[in-house]
Design goal:
Helices cover 38% and strands 18% of the residues. By secondary structure, it is of the alpha/beta class. Helix 1 runs parallel beside helix 2 and helix 7 packs parallel to helix 10.
């Protein structure tokens, strides 16, 4: 299937004449490797005037090799043949970071399945290997949980702006076949007002909707069932629990929640810690690894379970503090790697580095990073040209060696890549 996809990319012109390079030998040590964080993506690619050889440990490395080959092949209109210029090529390649993501926000503006698949396909051009699927938020709840169908029935923008369980499975499988992981985020306890339309019992009051109500087990029972539904639809072992931008005002204004906090000798901030702890335990009990935005580190530090991955989005020293304490980190600092900040050029994004200011030991705990495509201002009509070509700058920093930092040297590569995107 992968060879068929790349054949279309390699040879878009029909009726071309055969060149001297007629085949490519592909050798994969483990062609059925599972797509997980840390899967081997390395490859070697050797191309001469008459021969081509790809060697990879897994099919995912072979996919990257074929993508590289597809960007070396050009069509010669004078000879009506495909050629590889400047042979021989001998490339040994592997990523600097194992997690290279784009966040896709399908709550603020719904993205149809066709749009998601087109975006996934574009990821492979720059060797992006992860969708961070921010699937729901306070604006809408498009995910159709089989266990709690009223969440989407009442919380989606409309009846056709929803994802069924099979839709999610379909996206996950489409991505897997292209070497792209899908990490789903269900943000709690904040960013959850859309939950209240279908299940008002888990919210502080009818007029003050979030953070979700910590004073009733119904909240955590629903979260557990919802997370299990997501786990059943996906294959990745990492689950993003959000945890950001939690304002506990609604807890203080709710007589029942504030009384519950008093009875348990908790401040609102301690209630936030309690909530996060229960949600983290749910994820761990499901056999998954929790990831959370950096507010959890700011509030709770080393109280967090050591398996938790900290997702830095604020500028500052969070990555250094967390890695120094032995926690793993994903780096997507705002505004540097926020793709919705349209005023920043690719040159600004190119200067970002997840390991800036870190020792080698600390950097080894940074699993990667990515560009965050928040959905306030994009829908399916313009999301691609908002992600690209700027995301190529982030992709190169996540893939290439830390010594590759020259904007001047990157400029012709980014220009070529932009033209490649237009052709495809």
């Amino acid at each position: 299937m992968a060879y068929g996809r790349y054949k279309e990319q390699l040879f878009p012109h029909t009726g071309a004449q055969a060149g001297s390079l007629k085949s490519c030998q592909v050798t994969v040590a483990d062609g059925s490797a599972k797509l997980v964080l840390g899967a081997d993506e390395s490859y070697t690619l050797d191309v001469s005037a008459t021969g081509c050889k790809i060697t990879a440990k897994t099919q995912f490395g072979a996919y990257h090799a074929m993508e590289t080959l597809s960007q070396l092949v050009v069509f010669n209109f004078d000879s009506d043949a495909y050629v590889v210029k400047d042979t021989p090529w001998s490339i040994t390649d592997s990523p600097r970071f194992e997690h290279r993501e784009v966040l896709l926000d399908t709550s603020r503006h719904f993205q149809p399945i066709a749009s998601l698949k087109n975006i996934i396909t574009s990821f492979t051009y720059a060797k992006i290997n992860t969708i961070h699927w921010h699937i729901v938020d306070k604006q809408s709840f498009p995910y159709g949980s089989p266990t709690y169908p009223k969440l989407a029935k009442m919380g989606a923008y409309s009846n056709f702006e929803r994802y069924s369980q099979q839709d999610v499975k379909d996206v996950v499988e489409y991505a897997r076949q292209r070497g792209v992981r899908v990490v789903v985020e269900i943000d709690t306890p904040g960013h959850a007002a859309s939950w209240c339309k279908g299940h008002p019992e888990i919210c502080p009051s009818p007029t003050c909707l979030m953070p979700l109500n910590p004073a009733t087990n119904a909240t955590f029972d629903l979260i557990k069932g919802l997370f299990k539904d997501v786990q059943d639809a996906t294959i990745d072992g990492i689950f993003h629990i959000g945890g950001d931008e939690v304002d506990t005002l609604c807890w203080r204004l709710s007589s029942s929640v504030s009384e519950w906090l008093r009875q348990h000798n908790m401040t609102p901030d301690q209630g936030y810690e309690y909530f996060v702890g229960r949600v983290t335990d749910i994820v761990l009990d499901l056999g998954m690894i929790p990831t959370a935005w950096d507010e959890l580190w700011t509030h709770f530090g080393t109280k967090l379970d050591k398996k938790t991955i900290i997702h830095q989005w604020h500028n500052g020293t969070i990555a250094k503090e967390a890695t120094a304490a032995g926690y793993r980190v994903v780096w997507s600092s705002e505004p540097t790697w926020y793709l919705d900040h349209l005023q920043y050029t690719w040159q600004v994004l190119y200067q970002g580095d997840p390991c800036v200011g870190l020792t080698d030991a600390e950097c080894s705990l940074v699993i990667g990073g990515g560009g965050e495509m928040w959905g306030e201002t994009v829908d399916s009509s313009d999301i691609q040209n908002t992600i690209w070509p700027k995301m190529a700058a982030i992709a190169e920093r996540l893939w290439s060696d830390k010594s590759v930092t020259s904007i001047d040297e990157a400029t012709p590569r980014i220009r070529y890549f932009r033209c490649l995107l237009n052709r495809r």
